[in-house]
Design brief:
heterodimer; A: mainly alpha; ABC transporter involved in vitamin B12 uptake, BtuC; B: alpha/beta; 6-stranded mixed β-sheet; 3-stranded antiparallel β-sheet; 13 strands; ABC_transporter-like_ATP-bd (chain B); translocase (chain B); AAA+_ATPase (chain B); ATP-binding (chain B); Iron complex transport system ATP-binding protein (chain B)
């Protein structure tokens, strides 16, 4: 705007909005820092817990000066527990970011990998391998189930994508398509369980509960690599994605191309969700709860909302991992059960106690 | 100075033609142009077509523009409920297509746009908490903060009270004069059009039925033909044209 053509806000005596805005930015940076700190603490506690218990000091020492702790502690913490604990962070962040962006591009608070059928598709792919040994793409034994899950998740995402390209398909139609996919895959899963052996049914049921225990370093690197690639690609569209929450008409008026952006983001988040679900099974609600908490804490400016959603999702799953070890001593409860049992009441509490509606 | 000329401009939704070969003389920067016409005449479609959101035949010719994005467009209010403050939503409009880093001059522009429209006090409010009229002013701020050379406003006063209607139109006319900006606004109040706009284009069923200086275009005959009302135009004591509508026919 042309300075000098009219009185500046200061000259008019109006409050300086930029001061308020700068304070808001600092507050959000502090919240992100606090979430990061909480995440680190949760990671340490998660590492400390298990059949062999370690003190927090010992864990922190093993993290930063591994040579100063015993060989046994180093092996347990770095080789056995670290991939699982880090996988909780990566999967939590991936699912939460996927949910956050699905909610953003579809303008629907219930959109998530779970509700759009991507998780159900992955479950079906995994069940095919577990029950009948169906291999979609030949791979090492360890990766057959994840690859099946990944392929079916991506097939689901592209099916929704392809249908969404048809003329006259609205955001509501896409969400309904997702729900239809969930029901289709649930029926197919039931069919598989009907024909499969009892042992195979157990394997399928356990997989659908979601579990971090099969995490390994190579799987972790793959999941982390995908997250590390997708996050900057999403961040690149930060302003455009924030504008999407103002509605398509407003976003278009600001130069955003909603249809193209929606398709690009859908592919990216499908990739995130597919990888996460492929490696750890169906962990529900993170993609729903993580973004909502991030939105309440940080608003919807994507520069804060995107990392916030990642941190919230990672924190929730990490805390879930801790709870899965301590709720019944000596037993590690599948993490998917924990996220549902603990996450949903917590989520309802947040939503009902929050003064303003987010949607 | 920027000029905008429409040459046989058409627009379609699917197979349905909404605009038919709209041709206008060059509208110049510094002017305020009213887009008039009854409901469903094609006014919103015309804005979307000019802004490039719709396909169709014909040409939108812009000459003399200096910026990369010379045109800003404010659509009709859509009532979004995002978790953003007013300040953030105006900053967002400023930052589209730019880097993620916000600079001090971006914040100064946002402050200035909010102050221009008299809504600096709303900066900290969530946009979901605003009234329809306040949202409309925020929409205007989002368009202004882009520093456009051509400003397209689709019914910018439809949700405003009388005071704010006059206030907003006065500001737009002043900014047009001061900055050499071309303001094109869809208006339903022909009295406002007579008072605040220099040129008018009248649409009916997707066709341009009149175009020229507002006081020459808005006549009792046109009102009868396009709006189906009987009306007369008189000069008030200050010499301004006043529209007096008698009845619908």
């Amino acid at each position: 705007m042309h300075a000098g053509t009219s009185p500046s806000p200061t000259e008019q005596g109006a409050p300086e909005g930029r001061d308020f805005y700068r304070a808001l930015v600092v507050r959000r940076q502090l919240i992100l820092a606090a979430l990061t700190l909480a995440l680190f603490l949760s990671l340490c506690v998660d590492l400390a817990l298990g059949p062999a218990r370690f003190g927090l000091g010992e864990v922190i020492a093993a993290l930063f000066t591994p040579d100063n702790v015993s060989q046994q502690a180093r092996v347990i913490l770095w080789e056995i527990r670290m991939p699982v604990a880090l996988m909780a962070l990566v999967v939590g962040a991936s699912l939460s970011v996927a949910g956050a962006q699905m909610q953003t591009i579809l303008s629907n608070p219930l959109a998530s990998p779970f509700t759009l059928g991507i998780s159900a598709g992955a479950g079906f792919g995994a069940a095919l391998a577990l029950a009948f040994g169906v291999v979609i793409i030949p791979a090492a034994v360890d990766y057959v189930v994840p690859i099946n899950a990944f392929v079916m998740a991506m097939v689901t995402a592209f099916f929704i994508h392809a249908l969404s390209l048809r003329r006259g398909v609205t955001i509501e139609t896409i969400v309904l398509l997702g729900i239809a996919m969930v029901f289709i895959f649930n029926a197919l899963m039931a069919l598989i369980q009907f024909f499969a052996s009892q042992q195979a049914v157990s394997a399928v049921v356990f997989w659908t509960m979601g579990s971090l225990t099969k995490a390994t370093w190579p799987k972790l690197w793959i999941a982390l690599g995908v997250l590390a690639v997708v996050m900057p690609l999403l961040a690149r569209h930060g302003w455009a994605l924030t504008a999407m929450r103002l509605g398509d008409a407003k976003a278009e008026s600001l130069g955003v191309k909603p249809r193209r952006l929606r398709l690009e983001v859908l592919v990216l988040v499908a990739l995130l969700a597919a990888i996460a679900v492929a490696f750890v099974g169906t962990i529900g609600f993170i993609g729903l709860i993580g973004p909502h908490i991030a939105r309440m804490l940080l608003g919807e400016d994507q520069r804060f909302f995107l990392p916030g959603a990642a941190l919230c999702g990672a924190l929730i799953l990490s805390v879930g991992s801790v709870l899965s070890k301590v709720l019944i001593p000596g037993t590690v409860i599948p993490i998917g059960i924990i996220t549902s049992l603990v996450g949903i009441p917590f989520f309802l509490f947040l939503v009902l106690s929050h003064k303003k509606a987010s949607w | 100075m920027v000029t905008l000329t429409l040459d046989r401009l058409s627009a379609r939704y699917g197979r349905r033609r909404i605009l038919s070969e709209i041709t206008t003389p060059g509208f110049q920067g510094g002017q305020v142009v009213a887009v008039l016409g009854p409901n469903a005449a094609g006014k919103s479609t015309l804005f979307r077509r000019i802004f490039g959101l719709l396909d169709g035949g014909g040409t939108v010719r812009i000459k003399g523009a200096t910026g990369e994005r010379p045109v800003a467009y404010m659509p009709q209010d859509t009532g979004a409920n995002a978790v953003l403050t007013v300040y953030e939503s105006v900053l967002l409009a400023r930052m589209q297509g730019r880097r993620l880093n916000v600079q001090a001059d971006d914040l100064a522009e946002v402050d200035h746009a909010l102050a221009e429209l008299g809504i600096a006090h709303l900066g900290e409010r969530d946009i979901g908490d605003l009234s329809g009229g306040q949202r409309q002013l925020v929409g205007a701020a989002q368009a202004l903060v882009q520093n456009p050379e051509i400003l397209l406003l689709d019914e910018p006063t439809s949700a405003l009270d009388l005071h704010r209607q006059i206030h907003l139109l006065s500001i737009l006319r002043r900014l047009a004069r001061e900055r050499g900006m071309l303001v094109i606004a869809a208006l339903h109040d022909l009295g406002h059009a007579l008072r605040f706009t220099d040129q008018a284009m009248v649409l009916e069923n997707g066709q341009l039925v009149a175009c020229g200086p507002t006081d020459e275009v808005v006549t009792p005959e046109l009102l009868h033909r396009v709006y189906r009302v009987t009306a007369r135009i008189e000069s008030c004591s200050k010499g301004r044209p006043q529209l007096i509508v008698e009845e619908a026919v």
